[in-house]
Amino acid sequence: MIRKNPFTGDPVLFAPERAGRPHAFADSQDDARCPFCPGHESDTPPEILRIGDPWRVRVVPNKYPPAPGAEVIIESPAHRATFDELAHAEEIVRVYAERQRAHRDATYVAIFKNEGTRAGSSIAHVHSQLVPLPFVPPRVERELAGLARGCPLCAAPPHLIRETSAFRWFAPHASSMPFQQWIAPKRHASLVELDERELAELAALLRAASAATRTISDGYNWMFIGTPHFYVDLVPRLTTIAGLELGTGTFVEIIDPAEAAERLRR
Question: Is residue 132 in some structural domain?
């Protein structure tokens, strides 16, 4: 169900059934039985996609969807694995692109990872999510308006962490949270327009970013921002969004992005 903020018209997804998720209101993720582990495939809805035999990646419908068509991408059979440890990361990134392409009829497709309880994960097993939406999210609407004036991602950024032939990984100059990072292709392209070489480079950078971020916090989010020049926004969860941020939408940053880039390079 979608409702609208009476002042702004911003959409809000109502999904009361998500209150039934494991650990929806608890800090602990310890579970006697993980629905994403091998041998427990019957605990999830019937799978949409499987990579490998035995499987390395599974895609299943979200049992507690925030919106119709939501999917979970189970990224490894290993319960305690983290993304930076996954040798098959390139296959996972290909799945991101493939599943976004499969939802081409959606107005917008949100792809994101919640790593750790501080980042909103309710199951510890390594996974990401995809949610097709029947509207363009307010953040993306604002960024599209900005892109109409010129693309800030096409220029070389000042706080570079690492560069490949096709991508830049950097700390945004106006970061809103400590150690925030963006990974953007050098060419003006969407995720589904990337070729095999570019997808491989993106997978390698996501592994490196996951490893670097985990030296700062064991909880982080990454979000694929689906503008015409897409990018990945990665945010370690170190601080709490408090009254000023919630009340004004304005963030207070406490780490200089130049310092963040230097630490992440190390």
Answer: yes
Look at residue 22 and tell me if it is in a domain.
Answer: no
| Tally of structural domains, the chain | 1
Helices 196-214 and 257-265, axial angle in degrees (round to 10): 100
Tell me whether residue 180 is in a domain: yes
Tens digit of each residue's pLDDT (9 = 90 or more) over 69-122:
999 999 999 999 999 999 999 999 999 999 999 999 999 999 999 999 999 998
Q: Nearest CA to 197 among 89, 84, 90, 57?
A: 90
pTM of the full structure: 0.94
Supply the range of the domain harboring residue 162.
Answer: 40-265
Tokens of 167: 């991508």
Nearest Cα neighbor of 159 from 139, 184, 140, 135 is 184
106 is a domain residue = yes
